[in-house]
């Protein structure tokens, strides 16, 4: 169960990472939208799981690979921005958020639009 400190750090990391990805995606200029959907930090505040939603779908795999390569740079930017609030910046792990895809599949199946409906 998360304590208040973890919740505050999760929110802080989510806000700052959202700003970082917003600037990066606008610099790419391809009409890419990267959303930080959730952040979960461990109890010892050393590792943070960051869940990303990337639109359009064809850019998901290449972008998540690029983001994983740039992890040290992203962590350094966070360190500069959050040096007053956090003593140590957690290690970052990035994951694709796929829950919206699952919801879309279920909705299509319920409407009968899917080729292989759920039985």
TrEMBL record:
<keyword id="KW-0963">Cytoplasm</keyword>
<dbReference type="InterPro" id="IPR023799">
    <property type="entry name" value="RbfA_dom_sf"/>
</dbReference>
<keyword id="KW-0690">Ribosome biogenesis</keyword>
<dbReference type="InterPro" id="IPR000238">
    <property type="entry name" value="RbfA"/>
</dbReference>
<dbReference type="InterPro" id="IPR015946">
    <property type="entry name" value="KH_dom-like_a/b"/>
</dbReference>
<comment type="similarity">
    <text>Belongs to the RbfA family.</text>
</comment>
<dbReference type="GO" id="GO:0005829">
    <property type="term" value="C:cytosol"/>
</dbReference>
<protein>
    <recommendedName>
        <fullName>Ribosome-binding factor A</fullName>
    </recommendedName>
</protein>
<dbReference type="Pfam" id="PF02033">
    <property type="entry name" value="RBFA"/>
</dbReference>
<dbReference type="GO" id="GO:0030490">
    <property type="term" value="P:maturation of SSU-rRNA"/>
</dbReference>
<comment type="function">
    <text>One of several proteins that assist in the late maturation steps of the functional core of the 30S ribosomal subunit. Associates with free 30S ribosomal subunits (but not with 30S subunits that are part of 70S ribosomes or polysomes). Required for efficient processing of 16S rRNA. May interact with the 5'-terminal helix region of 16S rRNA.</text>
</comment>
<comment type="subunit">
    <text>Monomer. Binds 30S ribosomal subunits, but not 50S ribosomal subunits or 70S ribosomes.</text>
</comment>
<dbReference type="GO" id="GO:0043024">
    <property type="term" value="F:ribosomal small subunit binding"/>
</dbReference>
């Amino acid at each position: 169960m998360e304590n208040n400190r973890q919740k505050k750090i999760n929110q802080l990391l989510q806000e700052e990472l959202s700003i970082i990805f917003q600037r990066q995606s606008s610099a790419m200029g391809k009409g890419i939208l990267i959303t930080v959907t959730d952040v979960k930090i461990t109890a010892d505040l050393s590792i943070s799981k960051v869940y990303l939603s990337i639109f359009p779908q064809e850019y998901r795999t290449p972008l998540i690979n690029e983001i994983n390569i740039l992890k040290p740079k992203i962590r350094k930017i966070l360190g500069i921005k959050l040096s007053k609030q956090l003593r140590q910046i957690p290690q970052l792990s990035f994951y694709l958020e796929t829950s919206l895809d699952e919801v879309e599949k279920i909705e299509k199946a319920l409407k009968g639009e899917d080729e292989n409906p759920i039985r």
